[in-house]
Each structure stands twice: as structure tokens, then as C-alpha cells.
Amino acid sequence: MSGHILGYIQLNSQPVPPDILSSPAPDATTLIARNLTRHYGQYPVVQDVSLTLKRGEVLGLLGHNGAGKSTTLQMLSGILTPDSGEIEICGLDLLRAPMQAKRRLGFLPEVPPLYRELSVDAYLTFAAKLRRVSPDTLPDALADAKYRCGLNEMGPKLIATLSKGYQQRVGIAQAIIHQPDIIILDEPTVGLDPAQLRDIRALIRELGDTHSVILSTHLLTEVETLCDRVEIMRDGKLIYSDTRAHMAEYGDTASLEEAFMQITETEEEPAP
Predict the structure, then answer these.
(1) For residues 72 and 233, is the Cβ–Cβ distance under 8 A?
(2) From CA 192, how far away is CA 196, in angstroms rounded?
(3) Minimum mean pLDDT among 8-12, 94-98, 200-204, 210-214: which range?
(4) Cβ atoms 178, 130 nearer than 8 A
(5) I need a labelling partner for 108 at 20 to 30 A (CA). Which of 116, 124, 156, 171 fits?
């Protein structure tokens, strides 16, 4: 598991006051990002990006390769620090109170941070301990994450022996084992076969009913079936923000794919 992913999930061992750990109300805003900017050297990869997320909402983050999606998700999850801008997680400043804010987050990067030589149970137990799940609640947290991700029969199996689809499930399980308010998924269905796609999409939709989910994807069918709102990036900038239904009605297009192509070719500023 790479060091920057460990940096995301390492938390301090000090108890957090109950008011900080209390869950947001239904439909409450769980994430606010304001004017995020990030450079690699002199090159701006994300420029002045702002977005919000509510509980019970699945937000689709779209864009061509190199648009800045993964860098944006890494800033939202606390892996990368923005050069400028602010991020609030359930009212907590991610930059000023990172340990408390990260307790609210679950993150699955494009390459799942798996220890392939461990069994599913051993790996998820390790992930739960890193997230300070208490020993008293850890068995229930493990059982719940495995149940929700369809891993009930996989506990003793080595991760290396699992199919790509089941490895993705393990990756999602580590992101939700501590019951975060916000789940960030970076290209979670890349390389899956049709049956695996169906199962992972069903899981994401179920997660969206009780959590806030940000989903980065290239698949417009995924947006159509999973997402409530859509944000589109191009060249590091946010160029479109609206509901999925409104995107489907964009211009004279007959499909989300046509709408996406038209937006990315013509829009210069975020839509009102």
C-alpha cells in the first residue's frame, strides 16, 4: 500500500468529541470545496474548482483523461494539499483539522490499495484498525462491510486469488468499514466484465442511498444509472455543473454521450 494512501487513512488515537462524530442530518451538505487550485511545478492541473455534495447524493465527476479529476479527488480526500482553496468535510476544515475530517471520508483510488498477500478478513481488519474502529465494534463493522460488498464467503481467501471484480469489492469495503459520511470512488469499474459491472454499480447505488458519494468515471451509462448530479472538468477547470436530467436535455443532443461531447467542446465557463 503506497505511503500517500496510508497518509489518508492514518488517524490520531485521541478521542474525538461526540458532537464532532455525530452524523449530518438527511439532505445536509457534507462536503464543500471552494476555489481549489493545484500545480505540478509550474503547470496548473486544477484551477479554481468549487463543488458541493449532500447526504444521499451521488455526484458524477466527468472529464477526458488529463482533465484533473484524479488530482481533484486526491485533494478532496486529503492525500494532496491544494496550493490554494478550502475544503469542508461535514463542517470540519480538512486542512486545519485533517484527522477529524478524514474520519468522515472513505476513499477508493483508481488502483485499489490492497495487500494481496493478506486474506480478505486480515486486510479489512487492518484497515479498520487504521481508522480507529474500536475493538468492541470491529467484528460488527467487518461483518457489515463484507455483507454490503458481497464478500461473506471470501473472508479466509487471499486477495491475490480473487478476480478483479472481487478485488474491487474489497477496495470498496475498506473505504466503508468505518461508516464514513462521504465515499470517494475513482474509476471503480475500470476493467470489469459485464456481470462485475452490474454488481459494483448496484453496490454504488445502495451506498448512495445512505452516504454521500463522488464517482469519477468515463462511462456515461454509469452516470445515467447512478448519478444525481454531474460536474465536468476540462484542462483542470470545472466547465459544467447541473443535474443528470438537465445534462440529458443539453442543447439538441439525444443522449448523455452527445451532451458530454458537446459540453466539453464548447463550454468555457461553468453553467449557471
Answers:
(1) yes
(2) 6
(3) 8-12
(4) no
(5) 156
What pTM was estimated for this model as a whole? Answer: 0.86
233 touches 63 (CB < 8 A)? yes
How far are the Cα atoms of 3, 119, 156, 178, 261 from residue 130, in angstroms, in the given order? 13, 17, 20, 10, 42
Q: Bridge partners of 61?
A: 216, 231
What cell numbers appear for 189 in the block? 469499474
Q: Which of 235, 236, 242 is nearest to 259 (CA)?
A: 242
Task: Determine the Cα–Cα distance for residues 142 and 256; give it in Å rounded to an integer.
Answer: 38
Residues 21, 134: contact at Cβ < 8 Å? Answer: no
CATH number (3.30.450.20, 3.40.50.300, 3.30.300.30, 3.30.1330.10) of 3-10+27-266 reads 3.40.50.300
Q: What angle do CA 20, 24, 25 make, to 5 degrees?
A: 140
Helices 120-130 and 164-176, packing angle to 10 deg: 30
- Taking the C-alpha atoms of residue 214 and residue 123, their distance in angstroms, rounded to an integer, is 24
For the chain, domain boundaries: 3-10+27-266
40 forms beta bridges with 43
pLDDT tens, position by position, 139-187: 999 999 999 999 999 999 999 999 988 999 999 999 999 999 999 999 9
